[in-house]
């Protein structure tokens, strides 16, 4: 099979998939879960339960508070203890519903059997409704509500559904494990999304460092009745799993700056999302579980794990169950080492998008001392958006907002390739991130002003 | 409670540093250095050591007493400048000329602009060109010290065999003067000229190492070779009795040393691929104009210095191809 990859930039960090052979274990229920109202992109959900209510597993706890928002369900059965602000992994206060766990009683209508349901419902609207009602969001990182993405605006047409199995971040193995262990369910989930999108071709895109997953997918495809689904092997390269990069790799098309993937006919969904779609549509099971990797360079192999966890379990509970924070850990990260977020609060609860607890040693994560730029151009070679980080850094220091916009700072996807590859350890992404926020603010303000002016002109005419 | 680091992504690094890149350049120079020391003997070793010592010491002194900031000699860029300067000198260069070259290279061309990353001109080449203009006799004394472990001529100045470079012979006597040149020999062992130019093969070996290690990209170098070949091919086809052929021009003088190690200097070369190609083409064109029509027999150093001046313009004019913006 021909390997493909994206055409601009990229880096090759060592993949360090230490936990790749750890089969998924089911994490036991804790005594208390904390369910965040802001675990999806968009407006935080609105609680529909009250303190003192008895809830069952899978029962709706909160409803979407806007078009881009999502349902939130209870991951456990028990009593609602509080609905109050609580610190997330970065210390930001977010409304959480605290539930004291009592037993494990599931809501009615959820199919808990292991039977594979391969027949795809024909009613598109009903399927979309099920995906929405079961709180499915993208699990590749952005947690964008899936039903919105699967329902393109009129006039745009999906030409290719890409299921993202790149898992290009070093260390992470949760997608790899579900590809091996939940293969057929993922394919059914992909077929459901394919049918919702009107039957466009579907590509299961997997990096070459996961040959077992590629084989498993190919074998399962042969045993299932679906057509127009194929596996595409990708070269190992970071950030292949970035939506824009994956579209370029698979379709040889590039999304215009500020545009959506659907503008080039692409819809990208993660492997874990496909599994969640399967469970939502075929089993009527809401998104209350996900898979998470506990790994790190300073963690002995026997302490590495892939867990099936109930969303809402505090990170510290998972860490304790896995044997505690290792001695050599200097940094704890939620997500991968390239794009993940450093955890400042281990008491924070897991959310739908939690994918890992990554322990890095000081040696693995230390930043070298910053020295002068030697104009080697490694940052611009590495940038998958074709930007020139050295230039953006210089413009940021000069406060040149116009120059920053002209040089497309707003296109930055914050993948970290520039800082990763800088031999002078210049904090490129740190500065670019700041100026990106400023420039995007200026662009929004300008757009709003233009809109207001147009409306004023229209009103004056009348 | 134990404290953990909290900082933004990325959380890992490619473990490449200015120092590791410069170390790779030094490793890449080893074949050519070995050949020149084996051939020219102890005197060449002393010139190399003197040049490196002067460059490093000077940079250290300037950062400590003049700029009053942390020393940058640990990044090894001064070592690279010292090696390249010595390689661009004849093996007979007197010690005081080497010292003056180092002062100009590090003191004037590099540190007066603010140190590494700030200099518009290649330091080693600036040093060499200053010496070429200031000490024309010493800088074109292409004599070969005798014997393997000859008494360093920079100390004694005796017992040497005189020689002229092929380009020098051509500049003096035209095409007839270089008739019968064995190209295969020049590829391996090109006697006469700066110490570092001795073996094209050794230099290309180092260049290959830099490419494999991804320290540099090949575009500047290939563009220089292509441009020299093309320009000399055109002239040679017009009048082969007056102009030298492309192969002669590729294999002689400081072209390979300059194209592989000097023109590819990060700081003084363009950052975009298109910029590098134009930069290289310009160098090749100027080299050939000097060799065919100039008063100096060789012009690689001048060509690189002249094109160094164009680099800011090239960086402004050419940018990387952006995603989704074409």
Enumerate the spans of chain A where pLDDT stays under 50 for 5 or more consecutive residues.
none
Structural class of chain B: mainly alpha
Strand content of chain B: under 5%
What's the domain count of chain A?
A: 2
User: Per DSSP, what share of the residues of chain A sits in E-state strands of 2 or more residues?
Assistant: 15-25%
Written overview of the protein:
The complex is a heterodimer of chains A (462) and B (326). Chain A has 462 residues and is α/β, with parallel strands linked by helices. Chain A contains 14 helices and 17 strands. Chain A has helices at 124-133, 146-149, 174-181, 183-196, 211-223, 243-251, 271-282, 315-321, 362-365, 378-382, 389-398, 401-406, 417-421, 428-461; strands spanning 24-26, 32-36, 46-47, 54-55, 60-63, 72-73, 78-87, 93-101, 160-165, 202-207, 229-234, 266-270, 289-296, 305-310, 329-334, 341-342, 356-361. In chain A, helix 4 packs across helix 7 (271-282). Chain B has 15 helices and two strands. In chain B, helix 1 packs antiparallel against helix 9, helix 9 packs parallel to helix 12 and helix 13 (273-293) crosses helix 14. Chains A and B meet through strand 15, strand 16, helix 9, helix 13 and helix 14 of A and helix 1 of B.
Supply the key terms:
heterodimer; A: 462 residues; alpha/beta; Rossmann fold; six-stranded mixed sheet; four-stranded antiparallel sheet; 17 strands; 31% helix; globular; B: 326 residues; mainly alpha; 2 domains; two-stranded antiparallel ribbon; 15 helices; 2 strands; 58% helix; 1% strand
């Amino acid at each position: 099979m021909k390997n493909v990859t994206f055409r601009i930039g990229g880096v090759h960090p060592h993949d360090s998939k230490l936990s790749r052979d750890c089969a998924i274990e089911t994490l036991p229920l804790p005594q208390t879960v904390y369910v965040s109202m802001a675990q999806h992109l968009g407006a935080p959900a609105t609680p529909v339960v009250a303190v003192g209510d008895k809830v069952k597993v899978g029962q709706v706890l909160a409803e979407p508070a806007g078009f881009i928002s999502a349902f939130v369900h209870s991951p456990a059965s028990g009593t609602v203890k509080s609905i109050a602000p609580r610190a997330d992994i970065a210390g930001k206060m977010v409304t959480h519903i605290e539930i004291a766990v009592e037993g494990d009683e599931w809501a009615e209508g959820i199919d808990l059997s292991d039977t594979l349901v391969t027949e795809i419902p024909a009613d598109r609207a009903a399927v979309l409704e099920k995906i929405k009602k079961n709180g499915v969001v993208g699990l590749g990182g952005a947690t964008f509500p899936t039903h919105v993405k699967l329902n393109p605006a009129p006039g745009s047409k999906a030409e290719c559904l890409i299921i993202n199995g790149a898992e290009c971040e070093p260390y992470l193995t949760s997608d790899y494990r579900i590809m091996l262990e939940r293969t057929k369910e993922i394919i059914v989930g992909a077929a459901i999304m394919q049918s919702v999108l009107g039957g466009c071709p579907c590509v299961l895109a997997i990096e070459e460092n996961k040959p077992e997953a590629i084989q498993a997918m190919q074998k399962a495809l042969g045993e299932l009745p679906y057509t127009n689904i194929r596996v595409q092997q990708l070269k190992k390269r970071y950030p292949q799993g970035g939506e824009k990069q994956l579209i370029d790799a698979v379709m040889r098309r590039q999304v215009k700056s500020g545009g959506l993937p659907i503008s080039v006919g692409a819809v990208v969904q993660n492997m874990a999302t496909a599994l969640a779609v399967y469970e939502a549509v075929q089993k009527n099971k809401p998104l209350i579980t996900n898979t998470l990797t506990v790994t790190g360079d300073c963690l002995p192999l026997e302490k590495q794990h892939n867990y099936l966890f109930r969303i809402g379990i505090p990170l510290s509970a998972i860490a304790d169950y896995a044997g505690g924070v290792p001695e050599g850990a200097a940094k704890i990260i939620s997500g991968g080492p390239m794009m993940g977020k450093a955890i400042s609060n281990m008491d924070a609860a897991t959310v739908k998008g939690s994918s890992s607890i990554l322990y890095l040693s000081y040696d693995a994560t230390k930043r070298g001392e910053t020295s002068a730029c030697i104009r080697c151009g490694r940052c611009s070679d590495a940038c998958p958006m074709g930007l020139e980080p050295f230039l953006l850094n210089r413009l940021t220091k000069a406060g040149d907002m116009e120059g920053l916009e002209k040089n497309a700072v707003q296109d930055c996807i914050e993948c970290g390739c520039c800082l990763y590859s800088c031999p002078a350890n210049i904090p490129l992404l740190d500065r670019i991130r700041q100026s990106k926020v400023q420039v995007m603010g200026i662009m929004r303000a300008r757009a709003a002003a233009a809109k207001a002016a147009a409306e004023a002109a229209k009103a004056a005419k009348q | 409670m134990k404290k953990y680091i909290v900082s933004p992504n990325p959380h890992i690094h490619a473990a490449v540093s200015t120092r590791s890149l410069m170390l790779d350049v030094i490793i890449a120079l080893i074949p050519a250095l070995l050949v020149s020391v084996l051939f020219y003997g102890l005197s060449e070793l002393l010139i190399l050591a003197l040049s490196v010592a002067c460059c490093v010491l000077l940079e250290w002194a300037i950062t400590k007493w003049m700029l009053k900031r942390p020393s940058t000699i640990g990044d090894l860029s001064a070592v690279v400048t010292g090696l390249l300067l010595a390689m661009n000198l004849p093996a007979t260069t007197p010690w005081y000329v080497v010292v003056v070259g180092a002062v100009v290279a590090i003191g004037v061309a590099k540190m007066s602009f603010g140190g590494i990353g700030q200099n518009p001109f290649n330091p080693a080449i600036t040093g060499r060109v200053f010496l070429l203009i200031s000490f024309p006799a010493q800088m074109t004394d292409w004599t070969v010290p005798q014997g393997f472990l000859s008494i360093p001529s920079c100390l004694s100045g005796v017992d040497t065999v005189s020689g002229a470079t092929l380009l020098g012979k051509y500049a003096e006597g035209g095409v007839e003067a270089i008739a019968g040149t064995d190209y295969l020999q020049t590829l391996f062992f090109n006697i006469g000229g700066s110490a570092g130019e001795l073996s094209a093969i050794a230099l290309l070996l180092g260049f290959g190492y830099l490419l494999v290690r991804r320290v540099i990209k090949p575009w500047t170098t290939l563009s220089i070779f292509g441009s020299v070949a093309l320009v000399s091919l055109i002239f040679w086809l017009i009048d082969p009795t007056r102009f030298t052929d492309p192969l002669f021009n590729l294999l002689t003088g400081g072209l390979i040393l300059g194209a592989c190690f000097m023109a590819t200097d990060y700081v003084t070369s363009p950052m975009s691929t298109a910029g590098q190609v134009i930069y290289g083409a310009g160098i090749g064109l100027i080299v050939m104009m000097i060799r065919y029509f100039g008063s100096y027999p060789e012009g690689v150093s001048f060509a690189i210095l002249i094109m160094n001046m164009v680099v800011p313009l090239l960086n402004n004019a050419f940018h990387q191809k952006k995603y989704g913006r074409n």
